[in-house]
Design a protein that fits this description.
Chain B: This is a receptor for the anterior pituitary hormone prolactin. Chain B: Pfam families: EpoR_lig-bind. Chain B: It is a single-pass type I membrane protein. Chain B: This is Prolactin receptor. The structure holds 2 protein chains of 2 kinds. The longest helix of chain A has 49 residues. Helices cover 75% and strands 0% of the residues of chain A. Chain A is built from 8 helices and no strands. Chain A is elongated. About 3% of the residues of chain A have low confidence. In chain A, helix 1 packs antiparallel against helix 6, helix 1 runs antiparallel to helix 8 and helix 4 runs antiparallel to helix 8. In chain A, 30% of the residues are buried. Helices cover 43% and strands 16% of the residues of chain B. In chain B, a hairpin with a 4-residue loop joins strand 6 and strand 7. The radius of gyration of chain B is 71 Å and the shape is elongated. Classes of the chains: A mainly alpha, B alpha+beta. Chains A and B meet through helix 1, helix 2, helix 3 and helix 8 of A and loops of B.
């Protein structure tokens, strides 16, 4: 009898850890993907910036502050404290929404150089991965309450029918926003992964 | 006037001194200026001079007044300038402050950040600096919350004031009494300005208790950086330097906190440093150095090297000794001796005159390439003859072979009997018609010939046997020469069932010799006077065998028959012999005469007579070639089974007949079975005469060729 209980407990442990292992694996994959996306965005942005003149750069710097990113409607933690406070699911959902918004806007990103053309497929992959993570980590009870977070705001295309100067500015903004958002997602996913990792010391 | 203004100048300089407070001097100066200049009045007119002098005096006074006024003005200006100058030299400048510059902003842990600036000139007045910032999407301007924490000319943003992923627009303002100056604004995002503190607690240790120790470096992340929650991810880098060296050895360490360095120098001292970097940020400073000393674990290799050297020397000595012992075999192996151009044993024998062995050794299975029976025939042939004959035969065969090789070799001791003789014989044949006398002569001479076979000059014999043709030798020679290429009518040797061993021998000899090189000779031997042919000597073989008269086959046959018979063997032998050995070079040899089978003797001998030259048609020619045919079997010394292109043999006058005969002979080209079939052929012997074709001059009478020949 004792042995049976012992066996059962061991099995339960194994079973319980199993999804955790899968979870970690999924997280690892998602984190690596978003890291790659972030590096990609950095590269594109720096390429764009180097192609600009000095004066244009200054102007753009000034202008940029007066506009805001397209994804600003998504409320996300902006410091560590807030991030620590958010739940894993919240972080995942925010990440998902960010990725989704950019997925719809990718057509204005892509085109031209090869790195730009890689953005959309990678975004799709990432979105799929995050969705899997959400499903793996969400409680059935939470599904309903979080619906609001998944409201999809249609992408506002502010970048059409603009003259050259405007388009240059808009492109700059777009790339900068993309870079920032990718870093956000990377941070959220990393934090969420660390939080769920069995080891207390998440240095990976 | 000039004088006056010039005096003014001096007056200005003096004006200064006057300004300093000496009016008298000025007055004196003025006086001096006003003093009339001594003008040299012209002496002469006194009365007039009085008026002039008065006028001049008035003018001088006027001038003086003007200069004085000017001087005053200049003095005033100078005075004023002087005052101003002094004031400027002594007093301080007060201006608005210069433009400050933001040098850098850094965040050590992505939670707080600090900005530093560099003030410009302060304009001589107390200047204050203030930092204002504005967050993106907001117009509110905030001032730096903390100027103190980070030191002078810095602004520290605490956690509460720091927002990630938010653009800050920061400006520094310098203010003083006279004004304020703004620096250039700077935009920063905290995420991208992270520069952590260097790693802490760097420890280096040498692994103990191992033969090959290594260094283990361990460290801790900077305290402020929160890696535990994954908020910041750091990657590290280790660098190590041997003491007294200039180069650092850098090792990227990834995210781990431990690093091993293998194969340190034995007995060396190392200096280790570590630094870190966030995933999107700047490298930190190098941590303070940590020193470690590596014990001497690597043994002094001197003894080892000595061992190695000794061992290798030992090996080398052994190796060289082995080579020395086997130097000759090695040499033989590497540089094998080139064999001389001679045939072992054979040369000796040739020189010694013992040809038999040599020839026997030379007789190889595929030589000549006629038929298999050929060899058999040869063997039998050899066997039949008595030792002498055998020798002769063998010699002949050998000679033939030799002759094959050297067609024109004649009259060698080695070449033996038939060489020269055959020449003559052939010649005779060619020259003379078939005559009985000849035959008889031949016959008679045959024995002689036989006896002489070996050594005697072939010419002589030929002479005898030949038609007494003086030219025999010549002819023979001719024939001899032409032997290989002869296609003349067969040297008709009438085959007569000669039981005499000698004739056969002779024949053989002749044949042999002929076959080799002088078919003529042989033919001449046996040529019954009849057959003239001779010019066409087919293969030697043929001649040997079938030299016989063309004309009068019968008659000569009869006459020659006996002889022939006696000679048959020889002839046959010759034939075959010739055929056999000659087979080699037979192809081009044409029988000088065509041989017909004159008759078939009772003894089953086929009397072959040479076909007349006129009949040299294909058949005969062929026949002649068939001369080469060899005697297949020797029946009781009586019948030589000529392996011949049958042409000769039999009966026929017609080639085809011969063919038949040949076929009967069951030999390819040779009707060895002449004898048995001779009877039949006897009739046709006369006409038969397989005339060896030129074609048949190949030496072998092939049935095939035979068949193609027209019969005549």
């Amino acid at each position: 009898m004792d042995r049976a209980i012992l066996l059962l407990s061991v099995m339960c442990l194994g079973v319980s850890t199993q999804p955790n292992t899968d979870n970690q694996r999924l997280f690892s994959i998602a984190v690596s993907r978003v890291q790659h996306l972030h590096l990609l965005s950095q590269r594109i942005f720096s390429e764009f910036e180097s192609s600009l003149q000095m004066e244009e750069q200054r102007q753009l710097n000034k202008i940029f502050l007066q506009d805001f990113c397209n994804s600003d409607y998504i409320i996300s933690p902006i410091d560590k404290h807030e991030t620590q406070r958010s739940s894993v699911l919240n972080l995942l959902s925010i990440s998902y929404r960010l990725v989704e918004s950019w997925e719809s806007a990718s057509h204005s990103l892509s085109g031209g150089s090869a790195p730009r053309n890689q953005i959309l497929p990678r975004l799709s992959d990432l979105k799929t991965g995050i969705l899997l993570l959400i499903r793996a980590n969400q409680d059935p009870s939470e599904i309903i309450t979080d619906n609001s977070n998944f409201q999809f705001v249609p992408y506002e295309n502010n970048y059409q029918n603009l003259d050259d100067d405007e388009s240059l500015r808009k492109t700059y903004e777009l790339l900068a926003c993309f870079k920032k958002d990718m870093h956000k997602v990377e941070t959220y996913l990393t934090v969420a992964k660390c939080r769920l990792s069995p080891e207390a010391n998440c240095t990976l | 006037m000039d004088q006056t203004c010039g005096a003014d100048r001096t007056a200005s300089s003096s004006l200064r001194s006057h300004i300093s407070g000496n009016l008298n001097r000025g007055r004196a100066l003025r006086w001096r200026l006003g003093s009339p200049e001594p003008s040299p009045p012209s002496s002469g007119s006194t009365g007039r001079g009085q008026n002039e002098s008065h006028f001049q005096g008035m003018r001088a006074k006027l001038r003086q007044r003007l200069c004085g006024a000017m001087m005053k003005k200049v003095g005033g200006v100078l005075l004023w300038l002087l005052l101003l100058f002094i004031q400027l030299a002594e007093g301080k400048r007060h201006a608005p402050p210069g433009k400050p510059t933001l040098t850098s902003c850094r965040s050590p842990e992505k939670e707080t950040f600090t900005c530093w600036w560099e003030p410009g000139s302060d304009g001589g007045l107390p200047t204050t600096h203030a930092l204002y910032y504005r967050k993106e999407n907001s117009e509110t301007v905030y001032e730096c919350p903390d100027y103190k924490t980070a030191g002078e000319n810095s602004c520290f943003f605490s956690k509460n004031d720091t927002s990630i992923w938010v653009n800050y627009n920061i400006t520094v303002v310098a203010t003083n009494v006279l004004g304020r100056t703004f620096s250039d604004p700077v935009d920063i995002d905290v995420v991208y300005i992270v520069m952590p503190n260097p790693p802490e607690e760097v420890r280096v240790s040498v692994t103990q208790n191992t033969d090959w120790p290594f260094l283990r470096v361990s460290w801790e992340p900077p305290k402020k950086a929160d890696t535990r929650s994954g908020w910041i991810t750091l990657i590290y880098e280790v660098r190590i330097q041997l003491e007294n060296e200039d180069e650092w050895e850098v090792h990227p360490a990834g995210q781990q906190k431990v690093f091993n360095i293998f194969s340190p120098r034995s007995g060396g001292t190392y200096q280790v440093q570590v630094r870190c970097k966030p995933d999107h940020g700047f490298w930190s400073e190098w941590s303070p150095s940590t020193y470690v000393k590596v014990p001497e674990y690597f043994p002094r290799e001197k003894s080892m090297w000595i061992l190695i050297v000794v061992f290798s020397a030992f090996i080398f000595f052994i190796f060289s000794w082995l080579i020395y012992m086997n130097i000759y075999s090695l040499k033989h192996c590497l540089l094998p001796p080139v064999p001389g151009p001679k045939i072992k044993g054979f040369d000796k024998q040739l020189k010694n005159g013992k040809c038999e062995d040599i020839f026997s050794s030379l007789v190889v299975s595929d030589f000549p390439p006629i038929t298999s029976n050929y060899e058999d025939f040869l063997v039998e042939y050899l066997e039949v003859y008595v030792p002498e004959e055998r020798e002769l035969i063998m010699e002949d065969s050998k000679e033939l072979q030799d002759s094959l090789k050297s067609e024109n070799s004649t009259c060698d001791n080695d070449s033996g009997r038939g060489s020269c003789d055959s020449h003559t014989l052939l010649i005779d044949k060619g020259g003379c018609d078939k005559e009985d006398g000849l035959q008889s002569d031949q016959e008679g001479s045959q024995p002689e010939m036989d006896s002489k076979r070996h050594e005697e000059a072939p010419e002589e014999e030929l002479l005898e046997y030949s038609h007494g043709n003086v030219h025999s030798p010549d002819i023979s020679s001719e024939k001899v020469k032409s032997w290989p290429s002869l296609f003349s009518p067969l040297p008709q040797y009438s085959l007569s069932p000669v039981n005499q061993p000698s004739p056969p021998e002779m024949g053989k000899q002749h044949c042999l010799s002929d076959s080799l090189f002088a078919p003529d000779t042989l033919s001449s031997y046996f040529t019954q006077p009849g057959p003239s042919t001779k010019t066409d000597f087919t293969s030697n073989y043929w001649e040997c065998n079938f030299n016989h008269k063309q004309s009068h086959p019968l008659h000569p046959q009869t006459a020659a028959h006996e002889h022939l018979q006696a000679q048959n063997d020889t002839i046959m032998a010759c034939v075959e012999h010739i055929g056999a050995p000659l087979g080699v070079h037979v192809p081009n040899v044409r029988p000088t005469e065509y041989v017909e089978v004159q008759r078939v003797s009772d003894e089953n001998m086929v009397l072959l007579h040479p076909v007349s030259s006129g009949q040299e048609n294909s058949c005969t020619m062929r026949r002649q070639t068939e001369d080469y045919s060899r005697v297949k079997t020797l029946n009781n010394d009586k019948g030589l089974l000529l392996l011949q292109r049958e042409s000769m043999e039999e009966e026929m006058d017609m080639c085809p007949n011969e063919e038949e005969v040949v076929s009967r002979g069951t030999s390819n080209g040779y009707t060895a079975s002449i004898t048995p079939t001779s009877q039949k052929s006897a009739a046709g012997i006369n006409t038969s005469l397989p005339i060896l074709d030129e074609r048949a001059a190949s030496g072998y009478v092939d049935t095939t060729t035979m068949f193609g020949l027209p019969t005549y």
